[in-house]
Amino acid sequence: MKGKSFFVDLTLCTACRGCQVACKQWKDLPAETTRNLGSHQNPQDLSAQTLRLVRFNETRDKNNQLHWFFFPEQCRHCIEPPCQYMLNMYHPDAVTKDSETGAVVYSDNARLASHIHLEPSQICPYNVPRQDKETGRWYKCDMCIDRVREGLKPACVQSCPTGTLNFGDRDEMMALAQERLKVVKKDNPNAYLADPESVRVIYLCESEPENYHDHLLATVNQRTEIIAQARPEKQSRREFLSGKIRFKAPRA
């Protein structure tokens, strides 16, 4: 498989949030008004103005020892992006996949009319894209496609001081991920790569998925359900575009 990929080594992340700041700086995104909710994580979630977020999770092991787990979250740039199926039902060019890099990119047409209401989890198995409620447009990481096309690294990768974030040709990143996984497994045999065959953002994890984030992994069913909803068998395209979308009950 050609194109580009990220390799994100979570064992090296110190939650410096350099990547989070660099993303805002490069894309000229505004700061958000926040408040302390008892966590160092700030802001508390992704938004149309925060496309990358370092999540903090504090846990205790069976010996009651405290552990911090950090998760720099972004769009996974799926190999087969469900959001492309969903949003392109409304505008055929809302979501494109760059032929050279594989980046999943939202255009200005990635928007919904005010009478159509979708949750992020209804278009993305990782619950990543966020909608600007005023304009109806959806936003997410675009792999810094403008930088990559000029031979530069994404802003987040350029800013990372620990080696957590890596970016390059798909085969090179997969090889790096497998090599690093072997090293980490020497001390932690339960280490794993998160959905490496399905996404272009490959996370190396050393603990259970829930210790990082509820949406670290995606199941095949989640992907196929979203894609199937883009063309429900018992619903006409006219009904779909009018906002009469019949989704299955939300997943627990």
Oligomeric state? single chain
H/E series, N to C? Answer: EHEEHEEEEHHEHEEHH
Question: What percent of residues adopt helix (DSSP H or I)?
Answer: 10-25%
- Name the shape in a single word: globular
Rg, alpha carbons: 18 Å
The overall pLDDT average reads: 91
Strands, total number: 10
Give the distance, in angstroms, between the N- and C-terminal Cα atoms.
34 Å
Q: Can you tell me about this structure?
A:
The protein has 7 helices and 10 strands. It is α+β, with helices and mostly antiparallel strands and 252 residues long. The strands form 4 sheets. A 4-stranded mixed beta sheet has the order 8-1-10-9. The chain has a two-stranded antiparallel ribbon with strand order 2-3. Strands 4-5 form a two-stranded antiparallel sheet. Strand 9 and strand 10 form a beta hairpin. 33% of the residues are buried.
Q: Quick recap of the structure?
A:
The protein has helices at 18-27, 82-87, 145-148, 155-159, 170-185, 220-229, 237-241; strands at residues 4-9, 53-60, 66-73, 95-97, 104-106, 130-131, 138-139, 165-169, 192-194, 201-205.
